[in-house]
Amino acid sequence: MRRLLLGLGVLLSVGPTVRRSAAQDTSAIDRGVRIGIVYRPGVRPGLVVLPGRPAALDSVRAILTRDLDYSDRFEVITLPAGDTLRVGAVALGSPPPARGAPGRTRTGGAQAAGPNYPLYLALGADFVVDLRAAGDTTIVDVHDVAASAVRRTFQARLPAVGAPGFRMAVHRLTDQVLQATIGAPGMAATRVGFVKDGKVYVIDQDGADMRLVSSTDRQAMSPAWAADARRLAYMEFAAGHGQLFIQDLGSGERSAVATTGRALDFTPAFSPDGKTLAFSRATEEGTDIYTVNVKDNCCLQRLTVGRFSDNLSPAYSPDGQRIAFVSTRSGLPQVYVMAADGTDQQLFAPFDYGVTGSSNAPDWSPDGQSVAFHRDVAGTLQVFVLDVRTRTVRQLTSVGRNEDPTWAPDSRHLAFVSDRSGYRQLWIIDLDTGRIRPLLQQSGARLPAWSPRLPETAATNP
Asked: Which helix (H) or strand (E) covers residue 170, if one does?
C-alpha cells in the first residue's frame, strides 16, 4: 500500500502556474528560416495582416492575426490608419504591380485595390496577408514584399461566425499561411487537453473554446491524445479503482479499455500507430507499466517489474521504438528509458545523487530530439529539457513552481502548469524566444496534454 500511495502522490503532484516571466525563462534566440529572404539571426520576418474585404472578415482576421503572433515566428506589424494600405487597382487573380509601379491598372476581371508595397517596405514587413471574400469563399493572398509578388493564394469555405468548426477552420488557414511564408508547419489547428475540478477539458491553443470531454459524475485525470488527434484517452475513478477510457472526439462515443478498472490504472499513452496504449498500474505490490492492444482489445503485457520500486508515466518516442518513464529504482523518482517491449531499461536524464531532486512527467517531443520533464530544484518544481542525443539537460524555467510540460506538434512550444501568477494556471513557452503567455487564466488547471494537428474531419463538438 505504501507504493500505491507513492504512485498516487506522484500522479497527484501536478499543476503549476506562472507569472509574466523575465529573461531567466528565455532559452535561445529565434533561429527561424525564411524562404527567398536573407535571414539575420535574431530577427524575425515582419508580417502585416490587412483588414478583410468585406468587413465581415474582421473575425477571421482577428483570429488569424492572433494565431500568427502566437506562432512566435513573426514580428506582427500594426498598420497606420488611413487609406494608404492599398493603392491603384489590379485585376483579381493577376500578379500585383511591379515595384515602382503600384497602382497600375489592368484590364479584365474584377477590380480591387492592390498592395502598397512601398509602405510595407518602409514598415519593415516581409510578408503581407490579404483576406477577401468571393461569394461564400474566403480567399487568402500571401504577398512577398521583397519580390513585390503574390507568393501563395489559397481559399476555404468557412462556417458561419460562431458556428461549430468556424474557429478551427480559421486556425487551419493560419497554418497554411505559416507554410506559405517560412515553410514551417504550424500549431494553430491544435487543442490542449487538461484536468480542472476533476474533469477533462479541451481548449484551442489560443485559449478559446473550452469544452468538457469526460463525464460529469466521475473524477477524471491523465488525458492523452492519439496521433490521429481524433481520440483522447483518460482515467476515471470508480468504486476505488481507476479505469481507462478512450473517447472519439467526433462522435463523442467512448469505450472502456479492456483489462483496466480492477486496479488503479492511470497515465495512459498512445503508441504512434495508435494500436497500443501504455499505462501505469498501481496495486499494493507496487506500480508498474503495462501495455494493451486497444485495436483488438487484448494482449495485456507487463513491461516493468517493480521489486520494491515504482515505475509509471510512460511516454512513447515518435518512432514508437522507445518509452521514457519514471522510476524510483534509484531512490527518488527519475526519468528512465526502455525499448517499447520493456527491454534495455536504463537511466535517461542524468542526475546528481543526493543533490538533484526527483524528476517526473516526461514528454517526448514530436521531432524526437528532446524530452521535457519537471524536476525538484531547491524545494520547488521547474521544467527541464533533455537532449536525447547528448543526454544533457537544461533548466527551462526558474520563476515560481512549474510542472507537467507537454509539447506542441511544432516541437518548439511547451504548455505547462505554473503558479508564477499566484495560482495554478496553464501557460505556454516558446523555446526559441523565451516568450511566455497564459493559455488559460482560470485557476486549478492540471495535467495538460497538447494534441497533434487536428485533421479537417476532426471533431468540432467533443
From this structure: helix 166-182
Last residue of some domain: 150, 182, 214?
182
Range of the domain at 7: 2-28+190-450
Pair (234, 382) in one structural domain: yes
> How many CB atoms lie under 10 A from the CB of residue 9?
11
Query: How confident is the model over 51-97, as pLDDT tens digits?
Result: 877 777 899 999 999 999 999 999 999 876 644 555 543 433 344 44
How far, in Å, CA of 202 to CA of 225, rounded? 11
Please tell me the distance from the alpha carbon of residue 95 to that of residue 383, in angstroms, as a whole number.
Answer: 48
Q: pLDDT digits over 222-235, tens only?
A: 999 999 999 999 99
How far is CA 120 from each of CA 81, 94, 117, 131, 218, rounded to the nearest angstrom?
Answer: 13, 20, 5, 16, 55
Q: What does residue 123 show for φ and ψ, rounded to 5 degrees?
A: -80, -5
Identify any residues that bridge with 237 across adjacent strands, giving them in sequence order. Answer: 242
Three-state secondary structure call for residue 121: helix
Number of domains in the chain: 2
- In the prediction, which pLDDT does 94 show? 41
Residue 100: pLDDT band (50, 70, 90) is very low
Model's pTM, two decimal places? 0.84
Instruction: Tell which of 182, 199, 232 closes a domain.
Output: 182
Q: Specify burial of residue 28 (Cβ count, 10 A radius: 0-12, 13-18, 19+).
A: exposed
Gyration radius (Cα) of the chain, Å: 24
Q: Do 195 and 161 share a structural domain?
A: no
